[in-house]
Design a protein that fits this description.
Layout: H1 10-14, H2 19-28, E1 34-35, H3 47-58, H4 71-85, E2 95-98, H5 100-112, E3 118-123, H6 129-135, E4 139-144, H7 154-163, E5 167-173, H8 185-195, E6 201-205, H9 220-223, E7 228-233, E8 246-249, H10 252-266, H11 271-283, H12 287-308, E9 321-325, H13 334-345, E10 347-348, E11 350-351, E12 362-366, H14 371-391
Parallel strand pairs: 1-10, 3-4, 3-5, 5-6, 6-7
Antiparallel strand pairs: 2-8, 7-8, 9-12, 11-12
Length: 395
Amino acid sequence: MKNPVELMNPEVVAIKQQEIFKFNALAKANSGVVNMTVGEPNFPTPDHIKLAAIRAIMNDDTKYTVPEGDHDLLRAASNYLHEKYGLNYDPESEMITTLGVTEGVFSTLNALLDEGDEVLIPAPCYTIYGPDTNFDHSKPVYLDTSKTEFKVMPEQLDELLSTHPRIKVFLFNYPNNPTGVTYNKQELENLAAVLSKYDVFVISDEIYSELTYNSKHYSFAKILPKQTILLNGVSKSHAMTGWRIGIACAPKEIISQINKIHELATTAVSTISQAAATEAYTNGFDDPMKMRDEYKQRRDVLLSGLEKLDFYCPIPDGAFYLFAKIPEGLNQDDVTFAKDLLKKEGLAILPGSFFGEGGSGHLRLSYAASMESIQNALVKLRDYVTNYASSKEQI
């Protein structure tokens, strides 16, 4: 038999392992590392949610649900989205439960895209968007936001849509990973005014919607509901990343097509996780607020410390990331910088270029870490910058 890889789908073979996973593995291979790379809450899942999962197990609620998800969960999620963001989705026909937002993105793009289509993606961006698009024989078109404080400007959006007639999807995420930037209602309405002129779907990844610091999150689905597929879930809001529960919402005629891909990929999501998420959406309205307050304190400490070291960051109004520009006079190769920082100081920070166009010369720091870790990270970064600056040596 030939090398089995030669017989496999060449497009799959061409997919590269996510750089963030490789870097995390490198960090974990070194003992005593202060890890500021992890994009998940360091809080435990609230006890009342864990107890709901235990009850489901003890009650033998361990069989398949229908592919779109348990209807108690969908009703609870529908009510949660209504109470929090004023959204009105029919849980019987306009919502499905996905295996996290990651599967939600994958299934949605599979349902929407045809060969040769294009997907407009503001960058820097979460790392799965481009590969998922390529996998569907489509092309990602990146909109570099690094010159506009990492926000999409309406005129940029209009220009790209008018000059790229094959763009079928506008895929954006806010509050944003990796920058922490988010949008207010007026900014979203300005974008919607442009998008409404085109036959373009909008995939709005709002998984960090509960983690905003200066104003309440406003959902894009409320502004342009007929064109929008909303993706959300409990991973970040309720510290439930490992439970793998996402929610996809869209008009009936759209969500029914996405559900066809979803059921092929998953059959159904874990019933135990669904029971836990039902509890989160039913009795966990205040859970995110407690975590959000702590994140804000951590953000402020980290932001202040970085500014003292001349790292520039747009103030993140959401999520739990800072996207810091490496100061002039230091090595602007962010990958080399991050690897050398890990080697010399035992501090793990992700290179900004891992997140695509506009990320070069930046570093992403996650403050979903303890205050002690944040303070230790600032000491290590200060020592590294001081030692490098004084020696004038190339990293």
